[in-house]
Amino acid sequence: MSIGCKILVYTSDLKFSERIKEIFAEKDYIVKTTELFTEVVEILYFELYDILVIEPGFIGDLSELLKLADNIFLGIPIVVACNENKLRIEDGNNSRFYFINKFANPEEWRNVIQIAVDENYIIKPKEV
Question: Residue 125 above 50 pLDDT?
Answer without folding.
Answer: no
